[in-house]
Design a protein that fits this description.
Helix content is about 85%, strand content about 0%. It is an all-alpha fold.
């Protein structure tokens, strides 16, 4: 049987293409790659910070006698973020849901202050 070995030019081309890909990737993609390194730290921080912000937002909404849909939105956003983190979803999902949840909660806090 003949075994094929990769040529040096093939490995050189692949390393060049990887370097170009890394240079052409956006800062958001580089951030996701950095967060992927400390994935379990990301999970623990999103659960902790997301729950705190969600709880603060829920208490502000309740103390302002706001409509019930605002409380439902706060709860759904916080639960979606926490569910993605606990289920160990891909890093991009966890980061995106955490950002969306935080933005929703902060907007509702500002509306009800």
């Amino acid at each position: 049987m003949l075994e094929t070995t990769p040529l040096k030019s093939d490995s050189l081309l692949s390393s060049i293409s990887e370097t170009k890909l890394q240079k052409s990737s956006s800062s958001y993609d580089r951030l996701i790659q950095k967060l992927d390194f400390s994935y379990f730290g990301l999970i623990s921080m999103t659960i902790l910070v997301g729950s705190i912000i969600g709880g603060l937002s829920a208490s502000v909404v309740l103390s302002n006698d706001a409509p019930i849909w605002q409380l439902c939105l706060v709860s759904a956003a916080a639960m979606a973020s926490n569910t993605a983190a606990i289920a160990q979803a891909p890093t991009k999902w966890v980061a995106n849901l955490f950002i969306v949840s935080t933005l929703i909660n902060l907007v509702l806090i500002l509306i009800n202050i």
